[in-house]
Write a structure and sequence with these properties.
The chain has 490 residues and is an alpha+beta fold. The chain is 60% helix and 10% strand.
Length: 490
């Protein structure tokens, strides 16, 4: 096999091959969706956010309580003949809020709005995770290709050095030619080791995100619904980007916070019922119960007391030391901050979308140029070798041509990686890179609305969920990665 055929075979192996049994990008998505701790932690955080709604509603619901006590008097005044020695008490009360100045209503509205914001945040977490998975997936594919290309380059340079040494032995070349070939081979070996290290890093990043060791990765499918112009992408992003939608919801929630703070200076009304029972355990009157009545001491004291009452309580704040005004101003300032955060998020989304679109389009053009560069470099190398055989080119010319071909090959696989990652990043910025958009078929998708509907109207004090167990998988048992790649055909 000629050297040119060997190099072209390396290109095909590195950039175009499709293994028969390989991991797919869809499988990586499903594994990350099921086992990634960042996503499962965000889902748990959203469940915690859901509970703020029933917590806020609790302030507007009836409140009932009871107290029980036992008291023993060890010392008492010597002239207190009728003071009890001990007593048992029981009391209970029930209060029902009637009007709270709008505080409960607006607290519930704010909590519901923040739940909606959290659900958008969860969508954003999904998109960010999938974007990172795409980058890690493509990094492994790119670095495997780069390792193969560098290994092929080392093999070709080793053949060159052997041929140069043979020609030196017969006096056809000089020691300088041999030294140049040897130097270029050693540099290529160093570049191969760097490529190996990069591949190991990419594999470990993949494991950290996906939770499993990458196998032979298949080329990813084409990205759907990419926009034709940056303005189209921006318009879609401004409507559907989850981070921007979450910021808007939080801005609305702060408006309810202001209304809630204003309720602190308004009257409150509550209805109440309360009662008390006391039993002195026959220690209230120390006279012998069998002794005849003594008019001078009066009637015997009752050993039990009880009372009950019901009513309506109106509370009118008059002066609270300036606290309500400060809380209102604080809520207004935070509302202003939320408004600015919406604009800041909008700016970032616009910039991110335009940059991703530009990177994607540029990478597409780089791919076209690199493909032509690879073809031209391969043809140039073949011509330089032919011209060297008749004495018109030096060994250094061959080495330079080989290096140009390698650079073009690496640029091609890098551009393909950059194009796919930039395209997926663009979809994520447009709000189209979440689990529901990717059509994952690894089981039912997590729906945060299910848990919210389950807990939003809960009012029972003694109901709770089982203690949580970890959902994400650990990677401590995965083997340390290596950069071993299938050898090139001989």
């Amino acid at each position: 096999m000629s050297k040119r055929s060997l190099l072209l075979g390396a290109i095909a192996l590195a950039t175009l091959s499709t293994p028969a049994h390989a991991d797919t990008l869809r499988e990586a998505f499903i594994a990350a969706y099921k086992t990634n701790p960042t996503l499962s932690g965000a889902q748990a955080g959203q469940r915690a956010e859901d509970e703020n709604v029933p917590i806020a509603k609790a302030d507007g619901r009836p409140n009932a309580g009871s107290q029980f006590g036992f008291q023993e008097d060890f010392l008492r005044n010597a002239i207190s003949f009728t003071a009890p020695l001990r007593r048992v008490t029981a009391s209970g009360d029930l209060s029902v809020p009637v009007y709270s100045g709008g505080r409960v209503k607006n607290a519930v509205r704010a909590a519901k709005t923040r739940v909606a914001a959290g659900q958008y945040d969860l969508r954003g977490t999904e998109a960010s995770l999938f974007s990172n998975v795409v980058a890690a997936y493509m990094d492994v594919m790119r670095d495997e290709a780069v390792v193969r290309l560098n290994r092929a380059n080392v093999g070709v340079l080793a053949v060159n050095l052997e041929a140069t040494s043979d020609r030196f032995e017969i006096g056809d070349l000089t020691r300088t030619d041999v030294a140049q070939s040897e130097s270029r081979l050693e540099v290529a070996k160093g570049e191969l080791e760097t490529a190996r290290a990069n591949l190991i890093t990419s594999k470990e990043n993949y494991i950290a995100l996906v939770g499993q060791v990458p196998g032979e990765l298949q080329p990813p499918p084409p990205l759907p619904n990419l926009p034709k112009a940056p303005d189209e992408a921006v318009n879609i992003a401004l409507q559907f980007n989850p981070d921007l939608l979450a910021a808007k919801e939080r801005s609305v929630a702060t408006e309810f916070d202001v209304k809630r703070a204003r309720g602190a200076v308004k009257p409150t009304v509550e209805a109440y019922v309360q009662g008390t029972y006391i039993n002195f355990l026959n220690t209230l009157d120390r006279r012998d119960p069998d002794s005849p009545p003594d008019p001078r001491l009066g009637p015997r004291a009752s050993q039990e007391q009880s009372n009950a009452e019901a009513g309506v309580r109106l509370t009118i704040p008059i002066y609270q030391g300036g606290r309500p005004a400060a809380q209102i101003r604080q809520a207004q300032a935070r509302s202003g901050q939320a408004y600015e955060q919406v604009i800041a998020t909008e700016r970032n989304i616009i910039a991110q979308t335009r940059a991703a679109y530009s990177s994607w389009r540029a990478s597409e053009r780089v791919i076209q140029s690199s493909e032509r560069a690879v073809a031209a470099s391969a043809l140039s190398l073949e011509g330089v070798r032919a011209e060297n055989s008749v004495g018109n080119r030096t060994i250094l010319d061959i080495l330079n041509a080989e290096q140009e071909l390698l650079n073009a090959q690496v640029q091609l696989v890098t551009a393909r990686r950059n194009s796919y990652v930039a395209g997926f990043t663009l979809l994520a910025a447009m709000g189209r890179a979440e689990a529901r958009d990717l059509g994952l078929d690894g089981g039912p998708l997590y729906d945060p609305q299910v848990n919210y509907d389950r807990v939003k109207n809960q009012f029972y004090d003694f109901q709770s969920d089982p203690n949580p167990e970890p959902i994400a998988t650990r990677t401590v048992d995965t083997p340390a990665q290596t950069a071993d790649v299938e050898p090139l055909p001989k």
